[in-house]
Amino acid sequence: MAAAEMLKALLLNFFLSEKCYEEFFLEFNFLDVPCLKILLSKVLGLAIITGSVMVKLPQIFKIMRAKSTAGLSFNSVLLEMLSITGSMVYGIRNHFPFSSWGEALFLMLQTLMIGFLIQHYGGRPQKGVACLLIYFVLVGLLLSPLTPMMAVTLLQALNMPAVIVSRLIQILTNYRNGHTGHLSAVTVFLLFGGSVARIFTSVQETGDWLMILTYVVSSSFNGVIAAQLLYYWSVSIDKPQKAE
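Below the sequence we write its predicted structure tokens.
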């Protein structure tokens, strides 16, 4: 009996609403479309969060093995941090389910690490540490009641131009170099797949069109970078760069 109660609590906390639990386990209506959509959304959301724990680790390990950040743009990383932070803070302050924004927390930590490594291998480790300290202070302020909700909403609205500019910087960097440098294929394709799946989960779990449109834009540009990676797959990083 205790096991059944624990299973019910697990399902209600992470996968199903009370109504859908009754539909599936009391009425045995396993073909209820609205409830199936909710279940799929929850499963996808948790899968995205699980994947986000390691999505940028291949990129980080590739940088550390090469001891180089060739092909990576620090400005692009900064704009990506703006986008990730906006999604995370917006989700927390609006009390959205963790499954709808949780990956932003893990992406934030890994992107911060990449930004620090760019500074570190560029011979500016002190600047990297300073950026980390400033960032955590700013996030603390955004999450506190001192920051009005209107400002948090504005930050989320800035996600779209931030995503567009950050991805364009990376796309143009790849094009100018004639290769994708030390970009990790695993990271690029996981980011693309995750952003596409997030469109569906955002529709189901938040209904917030600001978040939905942000993920539509993000998916489009992540797709371009994924296509570039395939196009430049056989190009060596040691080949001469394109003329400016």
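Confidence is low (pLDDT under 50) at residues 240-244.
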